Amino acid sequence: MANLTYQLLSVTVVLGAVQLISGYSFNNCIEDPHLKGQSFNCIRRKNKNMKDIINDLPQSAINLTISINPVWYIPNRSFVHLPNLQHLRIDHNHLSIIDQYAFQNLSQLKSLNLSLNNISALHPFLFKDLPNLTFLSLSNNKLKQLPECIFSTVFQLDTLIMRKNLLMNFSGIAKSVSHLKNLRVLDLCFNSLSSLSHSNVPLPINLTMLYLCRNNLSTLGCKPSFLGFIQLLDLSYNSRLPTMAFQDVDLRHINYLRLRSTSVNIVEFLSISNVYAGHVDFSGTGLKNVSLLMELCRLLKRKLKGIKNLGLGNNGIANLTDTLYHCPTITGALDISRNQLKRTSFCLNFLKNQTQIKSFSSEHNHLTSLPSCKNQKTYFPNLEELSYRYNRILSVNAYAFNHTPNVKTLKLNINIIAFLHRKALKGLKNLETLRLDNNLLTDLFNNTFEDLLNLQILNLRNNRISVIFNGTFLNLTKLTTLDLGGNKITHFERSGLDGLKSLSKFYLDGNNLKTIDTSLYRAFQDTLTVLDLQSNQICFLTESISYSPFMNLSKLSDLKLDSQRPHGLGVLPRTFFRGLHSLKSLYLTNNNIFHLAPDAFDDLTGLRFLTLDNCCVGVTQLQPGVFKNQRNLSKLIVENMGIQNFTKEVFGNLTQLHTLQLNRNVMQSIPVDALDSLPNLHYLDVRNTPLSCTCKNSLLKNWTQYNLNVQVVYLYNLPCPHNEKLKFYNFDTNVCYIDLGEYLFLSTTLWIFLFTVTPLLYVKLYWKMKYSYYVFRSWFSEQWRRLREEEENCKYDAFISYNSADEQWVMDQLLPKLEGHGSSFKLCLHHRDFELGRDIVDNIVSAVYGSRKTICVVSRNFLRSEWCSLEIQLASYRLFDEHRDVLLLVFLEPISERQLSSYHRMRKVMLKKTYLQWPDSDCPDPIQAQELFWNQLRRAIRAGSRLKTEENDKSRGSETEHIESYTSDENYYLQP
């Protein structure tokens, strides 16, 4: 028990010390280095207490994210010290309870995200202190209902998202939002609403977007004018919603209506509703029956002269012939995605009267090929966007798009195209974007793209292309972005990249390139800005190469060379980056570079961002001058590089460095002069680095505490390597500032003086000193007499000294017998009566001298406890020095003489004092034995406190060995 008390007191002292630290760091948050003092992320922390997570954030904070934490409770006034917050995210936590005044003082807050928590109830006035709130998300919680006045003060609310809850009462929701005149978006999808009954409460007049998808609506149950101002209404996936639910409901203002997967008969719905038919999305409305689709088209044609967009997706349509011939003219987009189409009637013949169409989408169908349309008579001159993504297209034949000559965006990605005819794209002279990624293409020919004179973006990622032949891109003079990543390219033929005169972004990551072809700097001298060569097989075994593959790429600003397979770059040649004066970002992550020349980066004078993490584990030390020309570098990532020494000679020239990440390195110290040479440093991350808690880092410790310009990430969590319970920020540095020579000189001088002067004083002043000793002794005895008189009126009858392992016996047996059952004793226990915050020894002394008796509950655990030893020592001092009967020994278990032989003071007490033995279970009558035990203990506590010593007994003419004399039948329990 005593040990537990001391630990609690120690924790209190440590927590108090944390608050005194003024260093620029945060316990559980990271400040965005580019928005200093404004934006903070508190993500993946282990702390459950909200206030502990954010209590050290500055008042200037504007953006705050608290995500993926075990936080379950937000108490009152949690954010009161952050009055300037405008955007607050508390999502992906375990929140279940939020106090009424949790958001007090956040009058500037504009957006609040409480999604993905366990909130089941909200206080009616939770948001009363948020007058400027415009966005609120409560999605993915467990709300079943809302208090009527929950939004009574958030008059500026524009968007309210409550999807994926358990809401059942729409009337209550309508009441809670009815006064929000600025509410524009209300999302109630994925709830349990069965109707829109609203008790004569209207929706806000500015509410234009209402999402009610995936509820249990079986009727609307609202007044005809209730939805009169809604422009976007999503009722999809309410499988029990019937057609007649819309009888007389005003839908004139609807611009977009979704009825997917409901029970609505769409033809009947259009007949009874006043909705504008052109604003209805017919996807998922059960139109797989050809007769139903034809009936819909005829109805639309009677109602409309033309229709802008027609959505027929997710209807299970298996065939389209001349069905859409009966529809009104489509001038915008036709979407027949997510059906069961196996072909689109050869070159869109089913659209022969829809030549005005601008966009056609047939995604997620079962198309297997695109046939030749060379002899197609029907053309679609206005078609600009064509998408066949997510099908099963294996081949694209010649002139497959001859009927759509003006297409600007063609999406053929995510199929299984293995055959692309040389003339498949013939005639697409206006094409600007071509997506062929995620297919099975193996070859590209010199005439595959010959007609794509205006192509700007070509995506061929994740195919099986191994070689780029001569002239492949010869006519693509306007191409700005070429993505060849994720293929099997081993090389380019000499003229393979010719023609790409405008190329700006070139992605070659995930290929099998072993060298960087010289055609790079011949082809893109004045245009290339981004080059991605990640995850290839580029490797150098020697430091010197005869050329630089980037020599003439004068405008290259972004170069990625990460993760070269299988063993990394190896050596970084001296001239490798020659000519890259405009490079801004360089990525070298995950390369096993075993030699990094000190002049490797000399030409990169414009570099702003450099990442070397996990790249140079074999490099034991960065060479001095390696960053000498990177004076414009603002962010440097050197994580897990095996850096042993952080020196000014290596990093001292980075005068513009803003962010430095040194995580997971092996240096044990960081010289402060090296950090001081980085005047613009604002962000330093040294997590998982074994910085020693020794005098070698004493200056660094002070620097981290008092340098208010640099954020040291999670400074208060950095452990000392030799003991993770100790923290780097507060290890003891006092010894580091002691002048040992001076102290040795002074101590030696003092000892010499004492040995010289003491004999002289003894000879000359012996009797005077002896006389002074007796005067002091007399005065001291008088003080003890006064102290004893003051203590006569004791606060407690007995102080119980015991080990925490015996606490159950004390609480279950001793405490009820002495403080209960008619006994009037007042006991002093550690956990209950010690004064919190007071020194432990003071508490023990006060307990011993403030109690009439001290009862030591002796066991083997008691004998091993240092604190229990101190308590029995203090009580024995009082016993022997004051001659006061203050100590009672109670043995819980038999302890042999041999085991007690090393506890001299206890044996001395046992020779002078009678002690009690707790009866074991083997005695003849344990119940009677225990009752006699308690009687003897009560009698001993009541006994007077003046001890009868042998001297006092002799003066009375009698000898007494013990304090009390007991009857012979009690001697079984009372041991001499």
From TrEMBL:
It is a single-pass type I membrane protein. GO terms for biological process: antibacterial humoral response; inflammatory response; innate immune response; toll-like receptor signaling pathway. Gene3D superfamilies: Ribonuclease Inhibitor, Toll/interleukin-1 receptor homology (TIR) domain. Residues 947-964 have a biased composition (Basic and acidic residues). Pfam families: LRR_1, LRR_8, TIR. Residues 946-976 are annotated as: Disordered. InterPro entries: Leu-rich_rpt (IPR001611), Leu-rich_rpt_typical-subtyp (IPR003591), LRR_dom_sf (IPR032675), TIR_dom (IPR000157), Toll_tir_struct_dom_sf (IPR035897). The chain crosses the membrane at residues 743-763. This is Toll-like receptor 21. Belongs to the Toll-like receptor family. GO terms for cellular component: endoplasmic reticulum; plasma membrane. It is found in: Membrane. The lineage of its organism: Eukaryota, Metazoa, Chordata, Craniata, Vertebrata. Its main location: membrane. The gene is tlr21. Keywords: Glycoprotein, Immunity, Inflammatory response, Innate immunity, Leucine-rich repeat, Membrane, Receptor, Repeat, Signal, Transmembrane, Transmembrane helix. It comes from Dicentrarchus labrax (European seabass). It comes from the Eukaryota. Residues 1-23 form the signal peptide. GO terms for molecular function: signaling receptor activity. Residues 794-941 form the TIR domain.
